[in-house]
């Protein structure tokens, strides 16, 4: 059987991974995996079930049987539309709190690998290139300055009518990145063979074009 090509987009929070990965998937006609949504959904499921964020065995059971559905741009957990709750800063923090637990990561591994289907997959997260799709032919490590990322989150929140403090947002995202980068299991870091892309001064379209160019360069003809 033909190997399924996978493009990995890893990087810190608000670097634009999701935006880039979804746009690439649309342009290539490939599948898209938002791996962070799985950690976020586990955090929401834990809250719903009253499970503590350090109860590794119970969290792993929740992660292994997530009643999650992606449909028409919405996300459903156990029949409830959780699209907004999933994206909240609190849910991101909660996801980062349970993400270091090896049993939780193991429970989500097959689910993620099962998303690799022809004609291809674009996957974004923290350990797509280092762990989940370590054999992927193209890995991108996406970064942007903390100031730029805080501004992007600020604008995303403002668009939803939520007012936030930029300095506080920057502190929060740096704290989450530090936790993600310092954990023992699958920390946030560039794979050895990843190509670095700092998009602080790039438009979304320029970032998409850069990765498409890299992908073209890797084709035999
Ligand atoms: O998935 P991740 O948290 O890394 O970031 P995102 O939610 O995809 O992107 C954060 C925000 O940055 C979005 O509002 C994008 O429109 C914006 N942005 C971008 O993704 N790429 C740029 N080159 C410039 C802005
Ligand atoms: O969009 P943003 O970058 O803020 O977050 P996300 O990609 O939705 O991930 C939320 C949290 O889940 C991260 O801070 C990580 O702790 C965790 N995560 C992970 O450990 N491994 C992944 N492949 C994806 C997310």
TrEMBL record:
Protein name, per record: Multifunctional fusion protein
Origin: domain of life: Bacteria
GO molecular function (one): 3-phosphoshikimate 1-carboxyvinyltransferase activity
UniProt-listed GO biological process terms: amino acid biosynthetic process; aromatic amino acid family biosynthetic process; chorismate biosynthetic process; pyrimidine nucleotide metabolic process
Self-association and partners: Monomer.
GO cellular component labels: cytoplasm
Compartments reported by the entry: Cytoplasm
Protein keywords: Amino-acid biosynthesis, Aromatic amino acid biosynthesis, ATP-binding, Cytoplasm, Kinase, Nucleotide-binding, Transferase
Keyword hit for Transcription regulation: no
Cytidylate kinase domain residues: 7-213
Coiled coil: none
């Amino acid at each position: 059987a033909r190997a399924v090509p996978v493009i990995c987009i890893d990087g810190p929070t608000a670097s634009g991974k999701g935006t880039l990965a979804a746009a690439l998937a649309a342009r290539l006609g490939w599948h898209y995996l938002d791996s962070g949504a799985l950690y976020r959904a586990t955090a929401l499921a834990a809250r719903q079930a009253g499970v503590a964020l350090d109860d590794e065995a119970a969290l792993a059971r929740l992660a292994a049987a997530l009643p999650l559905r992606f449909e028409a741009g919405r996300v459903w957990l156990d029949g409830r539309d959780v699209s907004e709750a999933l994206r909240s800063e609190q849910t991101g923090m909660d996801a980062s709190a349970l993400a270091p637990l090896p049993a939780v990561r193991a429970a989500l591994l097959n689910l993620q690998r099962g998303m690799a289907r022809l004609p291809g997959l674009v996957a974004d997260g923290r350990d797509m290139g280092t762990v989940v799709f370590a054999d992927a032919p193209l890995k991108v490590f996406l970064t942007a300055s903390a100031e730029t990322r805080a501004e992007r989150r600020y604008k995303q929140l403002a668009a939803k009518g939520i007012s936030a403090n930029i300095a506080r947002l920057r502190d929060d995202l740096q704290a989450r990145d530090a936790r993600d980068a310092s954990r023992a299991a699958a920390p946030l870091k560039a794979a050895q063979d990843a190509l670095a892309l700092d998009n602080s001064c790039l438009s979304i379209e320029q970032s998409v074009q850069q990765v498409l160019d890299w992908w073209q360069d890797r084709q035999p003809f």
